[in-house]
Amino acid sequence: MRMAALTGLVCAVLFRAAGYAESPSVSAAACERLARFSAPSTTVVLAQVVAAGTFIPPGGGATAARGATSLPAFCRVALRIAPSSDSDIRSEIWLPVSGWNGKFLQAGNGAWGGSIQYGALGDALRRGYAAASTDTGHVGTDASFAMGHPEKLIDFGYRSVHETAAQGKATVATLYGVRPRLSYFNGCSGGGRMSFMEAQRFPDDFDGIIAGAPGYNRTDVAFQTLGMAQATHVSPESFIPASKYPALHQAALDKCDALDGLKDDLVADPTKCQFDPAVLECKSGDGPGCLTKTQVVAARRIYAPVIDPKTGRQISSGLEPGSELQWGSVAGNEPHSMYNDLLRFVVMKDRNWDFRTLDVSRQLELARRADNGVLSATSLELTPFVSRGGKLLIYHGWADQNIPPQESVNYYKGLVKTMGMEKVGDAIRLFMVPGMGHCGGGDGPNEFDMLAVLEHWREDGKAPSEILASQVNGGHVSRTRPLCPYPQIAKYKGAGSIDRAENFVCRAEIPKLR
Question: Where do the domains of the chain lie?
Answer without folding.
Answer: 1-180, 219-371
